[in-house]
Specification:
about 475 residues; alpha/beta; 2 domains; 9-stranded mixed beta sheet; 6-stranded mixed beta sheet
Amino acid sequence: MVEHPALSDLCFTPQTRGENGEPGKSEQGTTPIHLISQAELQDGLHDLGQDQQTWLKRQSFSATPGQWAWLDGGLNGRSAPSIVVGTDHQENFLTLGSLAHNLPEGDYHLESHVTDLQLLGWALGAYRFNRYKAASRLPARLVIPDVNQQSTIRHMADAVALSRDLINTPAADMTPDHLAAEAQALAEEFDAQCHITRAEALLDIDCGAIHAVGRAATTPPCLIDLTWGDPAHPEIVLVGKGITFDSGGLNLKPASGIRWMKKDMGGAAIALGLAGLVMSEALPVHLRLLIPAAENAIAGNAFRPGDVLHTHKGLTVEIDNTDAEGRLVLCDALSIACERQPAALFDFATLTGSARSAVGTELAAMFCNNDTMAQALYEHGQSQADPVWRMPLHPGYEYMIDSNVADMVNSAASPYAGSITAALFLQRFVKDTQWAHFDLMAFNNRARPGHPEGGEAMALRTVFAYLAKRFPQCIT
């Protein structure tokens, strides 16, 4: 397992104050940052002198959110140099999300109030994947004001960074065994229990689908099962698709489709990061994390179109397409998850191209069997700048996954409604449980404030916000 430096330590320094409430040592020697909107700039609300206005014009500063400029002498009568940053005063990543690598290296503090989400944007924009290439520079560091939730912001930044690291790691260094090692390290950190079932032992626990998908790979498939917390608390289960590389199997992917399949374990990475966040925040839940991990490879013993697999639930599945393997590993894990009738079940998966066609790459398609839960998740996604969009579990399409020789087929013959039929397939393995399924990209195709190009922990913060609201921390 590779060490993951804490992102929060790289981009934040905590606030301290003296006995009289004056800034403590953490602000001494730091550069002040003033936030100013376009309206405030135009209305002259900050009493900028003529020299200052001229200097800002020379830097083409217009107070666009995230834009920054130097001021010699600062604002509000300060003599020290300072930074001015444009803002729209909205709850988003636009104001601070690009500054950690745009500002010169050094320490900064804010002269304006910002929200926790804006501070998180600073951290998430500071992330870079440096495992194989030395960083050209360190991110600028920001003092976290003492009025903000320092520990939660740090934990959330580190959880997202862990997920991004795992997604960005190439398949040669992210096999099922590597994923298992990451889960075991997380268990050791938080005194959780972690059990790994590998290779032929999967057949002993009736996980024929996981076994079939991964049996052709050099590294055998496994089921990772982590538990944490008081069993008397409500049980919450997180399931993540852990296909560490997807060749498509015998239905081999074309070159354009196979290039980024290192990210096909993105669901597992998000579930791992979310599990770490739940534990670090000590939510009063009994947490279970299930990751079916496998590489969908090609060899003489690879599973074939036309094969019939036996699943944990007892349902038989006819294979139409070996490239529809994610739902196969998930179905065994979802069946296991429902055995104890948890209070809520969430699965994360880079499952279908159809979901990308429906909502694009920057939204997570969400399928949910409970209207109240779905609405709450949508609202938390909006408030957390981590949007999800509900898709229908339309029962009228059930016929598309029926089979003449088995209980069901793994891939509908129709080119239409692919993400819906995949979700309907999974729903057959969910019983008497509030369930949300996220079909997501797990990758940023373009850089945006707070979202550098590469692996992305989509829906992680949405689900955490939902859990934190539904199961608030006990205050003693």
